[in-house]
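ligand=FE2/S2 (inorganic) cluster
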Amino acid sequence: MAKIVFKRDEEIFEIEMPEGAKVVHAAFKLKLPEVPADCRGKCQCGTCHVHVDPEWVDKIDPMELDTMELFLLKRSKNYNPQLSRLSCQIQIRDEFDGLTLRLVDDNIPKS
Ligand code: FES
């Protein structure tokens, strides 16, 4: 199990997740509106975009370049080349305990 942490400004959302789940599954369980994940984890929509905490960027598995991930990220409003990942492409491992991600507002309509 690993604790996955999402941050929205100063708000913090945490959940314990089993090894093998994806980070997007943690966002589903927490019902986070920033992560609608419209394609349900098939790496087709880009709506599961998050920023990885700089402390964790080099600890998680790198992006696989034969997927659509980079293409989709580059089209995202808050794309950051150092921090952006699709949460459906990050597989959780026990050693990722405390993995921290910042929510981005790509999918939140402006009021
Ligand atoms: S859920 Fe659609 S790309 Fe991740």
